[in-house]
Design a protein that fits this description.
The protein has 271 residues and is an alpha+beta fold. The chain is 38% helix and 21% strand. The protein has an eight-stranded mixed β-sheet with strand order 4-3-7-8-10-9-6-5, with helices on both faces. Strands 1-2 form a two-stranded antiparallel sheet. Strand 3 and strand 4 form a beta hairpin. Helix 1 crosses helix 2. The protein is globular.
């Protein structure tokens, strides 16, 4: 009996050690993958930032007649430089369709789209390699080569605060006041969007009429979507939208609903 108990103890100890080793290996692998993903995205954003910085330095010294460029003109030059930089990024992945950035957050990412492979970037990174982090991408319902009244951009809510995790902040009015503008540039032009609503919902509620409205392809569905977003927003932001306006909706996971979604809606403003 004593020998049997000792053998059982040795087996359990070996199993515990095996579980510890496997868990430790998986944790290390996850940390390495996380660091690699973050480094790659920082490399890409660095390329864009460098391109933006070059004309801004020149703008400081430039003069039109006797007057230096205004702050608005300098901003325009900087943003146009970002758009020009995207062509270099697209050489690395032809699925690039834009760039999203929210000042003072981790959101500063390339945005991808694969029309013939729906949700491909849900589980693939910028380099099209399998990844739990995925990459921000435009839903296939919104072909950016055509008119799209409400551009749907998906991104994971990662526990390390990367991807679209920062969108949680918009549930707090103070965060929204400090970050009212979402920058979403296409490959042709830059765009600024003012946040007008934030709400949560369950993705398993297929009877929710939101699924019929969210692409806002007609005046009726556009108005229904705007009304729903404002009515269900965590708080009133005092902004409305009418047919003819351009919207983006950023979508990520949230955890107060079954298979929950957090949706931030923003309206394009023209400077």
């Amino acid at each position: 009996m004593k020998i049997g108990k000792k053998r059982m103890y040795d087996i359990l100890l070996a199993l515990c050690i095996l579980v510890f080793v496997v868990s430790g290996t998986m944790l290390v692998y996850k940390m390495i993958a996380q660091k690699k993903n973050d480094s790659r995205l920082e490399e890409l954003s660095g390329m864009v930032a460098q391109q933006q910085a070059e004309p801004s330095e020149g703008a400081k010294d430039s003069e039109q007649g006797e007057e230096a460029l205004s702050e608005e003109e300098t901003l325009h030059i900087q943003r146009q430089a970002r758009v020009e930089a995207y062509s270099k990024i697209k050489e690395q992945n032809s699925d690039l369709v834009g760039w999203i950035k929210i000042e003072d957050t981790k959101i500063d990412y390339p945005v991808l789209q694969s029309l013939d492979r729906p949700n491909f970037y849900l589980k693939h990174d910028f380099d099209q390699k399998s990844s739990a982090y995925g990459a921000p991408y435009v839903a296939e319902e919104c072909d950016l080569t055509k008119e799209c009244k409400n551009i749907l951009i998906y991104g994971h809510h990662m526990k390390n605060g990367s991807m679209f995790a920062a969108l949680d902040g918009y549930l707090d009015p103070e965060f929204r006041d400090a970050h009212p503008i979402i920058q979403f540039d296409t490959l042709e032009e830059y765009g600024d969007y003012e946040v007008m609503a934030v709400f949560t919902m369950s993705a398993v509620d297929q009877e929710n009429p939101l699924y019929d409205w969210i692409t806002a392809g007609t005046e009726e569905t556009f108005n229904q979507y705007v009304a729903y977003a404002k009515r269900n927003s965590a708080y009133d932001m005092g902004i409305d939208a009418q047919w003819g306006d351009e919207l983006i909706s950023l979508i990520t996971c949230e955890y107060t609903h079954q298979d929950g979604r957090l949706i931030v809606v923003a309206k394009r403003i023209h400077r």
